[in-house]
Amino acid sequence: MKNVSFRILLLACLSIFFMASCEDDPEPLVTPKRTVLVYMAADNNLAHFAYDDVDEMKEGMAATNGELRLLVYMDTGTSARLMELKKENGNVVEDVVREYGDRNSAGTEETREVFNDVFSNPTYAAESYGLIYWSHADGWAPYGKRRQTRWVGQDTGDGDNRMNISDFVSVLEEAPHFNFIMFDACFMSSVEVAYELRHYTDYYIGSPTENPGPGAPYDLITPLMTNDNAATDMASAYFKHYEAKYNGGIGISNDNWTGGTSICVIRTSALEQLATLTSQSLPQKNIDGASLREEVFNYDQRSSDSSSFIGYYDWVDMMQLLLSETDFDAWKQIFDASIVYHTTPMNYSAVVHMFSMEGTHGVTHYIPVGEEEYALAYRSTSWYQDAGLAKLGW
User: Fold this and answer.
1) How far apart are alpha carbons 87 and 164 in whole angstroms?
2) For residue range 290-313, what is the model confidence (pLDDT) as tens digits?
3) What are the chain's domains?
4) How many CB atoms neighbour CB 100 within 10 A?
5) Are 300 and 311 within 8 A, CB to CB?
């Protein structure tokens, strides 16, 4: 009996020892598969959509499996804040990380500060990263009198502020490499912008024309953000959401968007090859841009007489007109390998309402004309230089 009692006492002591040891050991840190920042520059006439989209993100976050850390920067004109959407006790909550007060969310330093608060913080370290930029945008094009710049994002809290693409690139230079960068904004499926961003992301997602008013269906795309093929899966879910509602624009409203959508995914690793092939294939021949514009599909439905008109032309249409059949077939093969694209037969523009998207290919290219201001600015883009567009007299 003494031996039994001794053994029981020994086992009890060992049990207490191991329990105490386990309590002292910290929980092992689990590195999430992906951290995604949604940057919402919504201090403009899109502000009301921002609240709806955050609600959708919460719904989507509820369907995730713990591999995603989702940070949302939101500026709707009152107090900008950074928050993490995360699960607690079965519910998705907003954990406010930082309040920034009133600020210009299209400013370079302001944007860099938010990126640093997320991507330089070891709390949000992950195996990979994603970025969604949510706002107004206008592709590669210059804004106002700053004719050597391109812009994305709009903040109207104090004037009308917009970010140059070159400044956006300077912010990306200090951020981690992204699995995907998605623009929930108009006219961003532009080869000129994608080329500028090619070193900073594996996949580039955008629309070649005007976005639907409600934007991306975040309840559907949020659970897909950690997928191995996240960019393709997100774009497909985006398109199918609006395809299911499509009804030729009949009864269209922000609550019932029946006008379709266009969304494109570009594999950025192919862009330098496409630039080289484009430069090698283009003829050494002056091409009249005004005449070419008449023959190429234009995604920009704003009036050509208006100050807002840029002209976003279908890149494939343009190349087919410029190249020989043999050269075009070789070029198109590389293009096709680089693109995942969906569109409805018709699409909606706030300017002309429904318009045909028949035969389009999802990536835009600018066609300069003469010495107009945009044409002069276009010559400063990396794409213009690397794709050999000077051969055309542009």
Assistant:
1) 36
2) 999 999 999 999 988 887 889 999
3) 34-269 (3.40.50.11970), 272-339+350-392 (no CATH)
4) 16
5) yes
Work out the pLDDT band at 144, boundaries 50, 70, 90: low
Q: How many residues does the chain have?
A: 394
For the cut 50, the answer to whether the pLDDT of residue 26 exceeds it is no
